[in-house]
TrEMBL record:
Residues 47-314 form the Carbohydrate kinase PfkB domain. Signal peptide: none annotated. Belongs to the carbohydrate kinase PfkB family. Keywords: Kinase, Transferase. The keyword Transferase applies. This is Sugar/nucleoside kinase (Ribokinase family). The keyword Chloroplast does not apply.
Amino acid sequence: MKSYDVVGIGNAMVDVLTQCDDKFLDWMGIEKGIMQLVDRERGEMLYAAMKERTEAPGGSVGNTMAGLGNMGLRTAFIGRVKDDALGRFYAKSLEVEGTDFPNPPVASADHPTSRSMIFVTPDGERSMNTYLGAGADFGPDDLDEEVVKNSAYLFLEGYLFDKDQGKAAFRKAAAAAHAGGGKAGIALSDPFCVDRHRADFRRLVKDEMDYVIGNQHEWESLYQTDLDGALAQAREECGVVVCTRSGADVVILRGDERVEVPVHRVVPVDATGAGDQFAAGFLYGLATGQSLAVSGRMGCVAAAEVISHFGARPETDVKALFRDHDLI
Ligand SMILES: OC[C@H]1O[C@H](O)[C@H](O)[C@@H]1O
């Protein structure tokens, strides 16, 4: 019996969230709806410009693991934080939410704990301004293979694939997952990151991943073609292929099987974490032996919950929502 159902690896990041209007975004030169990297100076300027701030633990795969913990699975999140106030806050909050955080904060980290300044506009769109701190320096030495071997599923965050040491850590993690008889998967995370490392992402997806979750732009960027062409290639190269399409039906492929899961469009209160919680719901289904259709619907239920309030992690009992929808 494994210790964990799902173990995730990603950039451990604290979110600083605020609300603003579109004029404020223009004024500050913030590009709407995407993740932009910022240096420390701009990060501090944006932080100071926020009128009211909420600080919350974030990070894409960290959010997914917290979501899976909320659903009652046994989870761990492996990430790198500095031993500073934000890093200790991050580690503690995951443990409180029921997800193990095996790596202690690193006193000697060169950079402070990663953070993202997130501006949410009245249409619910989120614009993220990320300062890549200690979390982005995650490398093979930060990975205890035994934790991964002891999990049925491994889930990786594409953002960490932006640096060579992150790539090396992912190869080590995938090998450990397979050595332990588990399955390895990744969230592609960002079309620009895919664009910067296309060849390496392609190799990883083809040779080392059992399931891959991405949105339309990420899949198109990976194969440099339209969505149908991209998914046709992905299906040849990877066991389970999941494509979210911002409000349109989710497409899931496994061999000859193709499932389309309907999405009910609503105006979000805050879209932050929608993809992360879709992944949590979907992985819950996969890890508990549900069909692709049910797993996809679980993903949509979890995503709908998180966009109904401010912040990237669930605030209600998502398993109860699965029951309300007759999914369990
Ligand atoms: O996907 C949303 C997450 O991405 C960024 O990493 C932020 O931390 C945020 O919580």
